[in-house]
């Protein structure tokens, strides 16, 4: 008889056997469901011999880095190190407006920052007197990812470069003699959520929408700047808060506010102003290969529009993107 409790016990036993009495494990976390469940599972199995690293790329949602730190470290007891590299990311993105170049830079910088931190942790682990060094690398790979990499590369893999940590597992496991550990590789997404609940992870985190690795950078059309990141964050925060307040969060697969840096004309008070255009997007999907725009009540959209133009300085228009996928993609870039 298969139960999640039994599965959890078995996973923990397997991890302990694989890692041994002294082995140590390193893994990247993002605050998303998969990496959090994988990290909590490792913590249950081997405690502080699991090292989680969160790279703050400055492109996370409003207050998200602090929230993730609170959730993982304080609530879930995960041995987490946060690296603040936001300025490095922002500086490197200056002058870069091509979507694929933005993704490539962010992916590459992520690997550099992560590897530097891995070295520091390794030194720290060695100095702490705990025997052994870091010999495993954790990845939150799910069953659908396993299937996709075994079969052909579908359109999602070829149209855009799609990986949070593109190249990281290969670099960590080839160059540094680490063994890959993938405790979620037999699970579908809803099973990962169920496992998360069994592990005591709070419902809000378990049900969190996916968030792309390059974060807000692909939700700002063209060049990224601190000003545009701030605007995207504020507008997004209003949109997501209203979605939660209306009880719609779990009916939507993914939602965000993006910045179109073209300037539109508006009137504010008795003045003519030029402001950015906010594009709201919310979709429902089961596989993220096809998607439909979510049908909000009109008064909901009006409320969000009113709040954004009133509360977010520098914005004078709000639009709702009703494009399905295909032909549109879920992200704007
Ligand atoms: P698209 O925009 O291709 O997105 O319809 C499908 C799903 O993939 C996510 N996405 C990304 N995730 N790095 C990621 O980790 C990326 O560069 C990236 N681009 C898109 C998107 O959020 C959606 O869930």
Automatic annotation (TrEMBL):
Residues 2-208 form the GMPS ATP-PPase domain. It is found in: Cytoplasm, Cytosol. Catalyzes the conversion of xanthine monophosphate (XMP) to GMP in the presence of glutamine and ATP through an adenyl-XMP intermediate. This is GMP synthase [glutamine-hydrolyzing]. Pathway: Purine metabolism; GMP biosynthesis; GMP from XMP (L-Gln route): step 1/1. GO terms for molecular function: ATP binding; GMP synthase activity. It catalyses: XMP + L-glutamine + ATP + H2O = GMP + L-glutamate + AMP + diphosphate + 2 H(+). The keyword rRNA processing does not apply. Its EC number is 6.3.5.2. Keywords: ATP-binding, Glutamine amidotransferase, GMP biosynthesis, Ligase, Nucleotide-binding, Purine biosynthesis. GO terms for cellular component: cytosol. ATP binds at residues 30-36. Homodimer. It comes from the Eukaryota.
